[in-house]
Amino acid sequence: MDQEFWHRRWAENRIGFHLSDTNPLLVKYWPLLNPKREDAVFIPMCGKSIDLSWLASKHNEVVGVELSEIAVRAFFSEHLYTPTVTSMSPTMKLYQFDELSIYAGDYFTVPLDTYSLIYDRAALIAMPDSMRQKYVERLLSLLKPGGKILLVTLHYPQEQMDGPPFSVDDDEVRRLFDGYQITHLNRDEDSDRPPKGKAADFFAEEVWLIESE
Ligand SMILES: C[S@@+](CC[C@H](N)C(=O)[O-])C[C@H]1O[C@@H](n2cnc3c(N)ncnc32)[C@H](O)[C@@H]1O
């Protein structure tokens, strides 16, 4: 999945993954992380998710990274926020407004801090098999000791459907986050997917709590 693929998706507004409201799974399961206002939150590959605003209403510092500047600009204009914009390199900008900072740039190269809490919805599962290990290594390097991740994945028969979104099953979550405490919080087979025009025998959305020990 090269970067051009995602730039094209945003340029053509093919963003079926975008939710028009706060993700109910975030609202339901975030309290299980025992979040405190002063815990800094990181959201990888955040798109223009409304979840950014929900988390910013509960935390002093929320940091997102999104490759597409179209998405980042849309997020701020759709919320009527006027961010300050700092150019960091020809391919990287930092957008800031109150508690929220969003880097428009590549997740793998943006200069990030470490965070107590991470929210991954449709980021790990946007990565093809060949990139997932590298994606998770970077994610775990950004997690403070004692930190927690709320992770939302999809599980379906991969041979019946092309990704993204890709299927990431129970075994793979446990392998990718080996050495961390993993709690399976929810499996929903009635989620309103697969994406338009695609079909699979089953299609389950799963929620995980990953904790560093
Ligand atoms: C499936 S979307 C999910 C967006 C968001 N998490 C949501 O729930 O709406 C995956 C996002 O990852 C972004 N992305 C893909 N590769 C990236 C990279 N290397 N760095 C930053 N963002 C990336 C895409 O532009 C896209 O917006």
Automatic annotation (TrEMBL):
S-adenosyl-L-methionine binds at W10, M45, E66, R121. Keywords: Cytoplasm, Methyltransferase, S-adenosyl-L-methionine, Transferase. The keyword Cytoplasm applies. SUPFAM superfamilies: S-adenosyl-L-methionine-dependent methyltransferases. It is an enzyme of class 2 (transferase). It comes from the Bacteria. It is found in: Cytoplasm. CDD domains: AdoMet_MTases (cd02440). GO terms for cellular component: cytoplasm. It catalyses: S-adenosyl-L-methionine + a thiopurine = S-adenosyl-L-homocysteine + a thiopurine S-methylether. This is Thiopurine S-methyltransferase. It comes from Grimontia marina.
